[in-house]
Amino acid sequence: MDPSQFFDRHAGEYHGTDAGMRAVHELSAQHIEEGIAGRVLSVGGMWPRHSQEVISNLDLTVADVSAEMLRPHREAGLSTALDDARALSFSDASFDHVVLPLVLHHITDQSWIAARREVHKVLAEVRRVLKRAGRVWISELSVSRAIYWTEALAAPFTRLVLGFADIPLVVMHSAEFYRSALRRESFGDLHSYYPDPPGGSWHDPIRPIIGLPWLKVPRAFYPVRPLVLSATAAR
Ligand SMILES: C[S@@+](CC[C@H](N)C(=O)[O-])C[C@H]1O[C@@H](n2cnc3c(N)ncnc32)[C@H](O)[C@@H]1O
After folding, report:
1. Which option is the CATH number for 3-233: 3.30.565.10, 3.90.1150.10, 3.40.50.150, 3.40.309.10?
2. So where are the chain's domains?
3. Threshold 0.90, pTM exceeds
């Protein structure tokens, strides 16, 4: 199953639908934007709720494997690249910051084990394009260890069910997995930020699955915790 075709098909729906995560996205954007400057690469589209004023002061490139997901950014005048996160077309040591906004859980090669391997590939590629002491920003939906291992056991069944709707497998990793992957790929100075908005309620509706925009569930039934991890490329 080709994720670029999936996202090409669903780009209009994705950009036109609020998944119910507005407050989380606002906090994440604020946190990322307080830390980034200079030449910035955002891989897997832009971070949601970004500030026009902040990005106009950056030398920003947006990369994505889907031409349709890139379209609004290209039309907004941003520099774009049709690239896979695992094989970026940029030279070594060319960015001050790389942002991975809600992309890593989609790079799975259709298996839980492969998904872990692919995260390592992306981080190695990010480290290659980062300048010395450059920083990576991972905005993700993390899960507890118990959910992570349940996901591993259920992955073949989940892949089968999603396959009926032509939706590729997604794998939400635990915060511990991301931290250990960053360390193994020679990143240091790790920082974790949890964008938990005050006043949220367990029954706030969210749309958890791209490709099924009619499916809304109370937040409590979707056991993920948004997380922004950042780390410095050590050489
Ligand atoms: C859930 S969307 C996130 C879009 C945007 N960053 C946001 O947070 O609203 C995931 C994005 O990752 C892109 N993507 C999936 N696999 C990718 C890959 N291997 N390399 C680059 N981008 C990828 C998809 O095309 C899609 O634009």
Report:
1. 3.40.50.150
2. 3-233
3. yes
pLDDT in 10s for each residue of the chain, 235 residues = 788 999 999 898 888 777 778 899 999 999 999 999 999 999 999 999 999 999 999 999 999 999 999 999 999 999 999 999 999 999 999 999 999 999 999 999 999 999 999 999 999 999 999 999 999 999 999 999 999 999 999 999 999 999 999 999 999 999 999 999 999 999 999 999 999 888 776 777 778 788 888 888 877 777 899 999 999 998 6
Token code pair at residue 3:
């994720």
Q: How close is the Cα of 94 to the center of ligand 1, in Å?
A: 21
Q: What's the CA angle centered on 110, arms 207 and 119, to 5 degrees?
A: 85
- For the CA atoms of the chain, what is the radius of gyration? 17
Give the position, in ligand 1's atom list, of the atom nearest the Cα of 7: 25
* Cα 173 to middle of ligand 1, angstroms: 16
Cα separations (Å) of 191 from 149, 187, 228, 229?
A: 24, 11, 8, 6
What does the angle CA 86 – CA 87 – CA 93 come to, to the nearest 5 degrees? Answer: 105
Q: Is 3 in the pocket of ligand 1 (CB under 6 A)?
A: yes
Q: Please report, in angstroms and rounded to a whole number, the separation of the first and last CA atoms in the chain.
A: 36
Q: Cα dist. 136→43, 71, 222 in Å?
A: 11, 24, 27
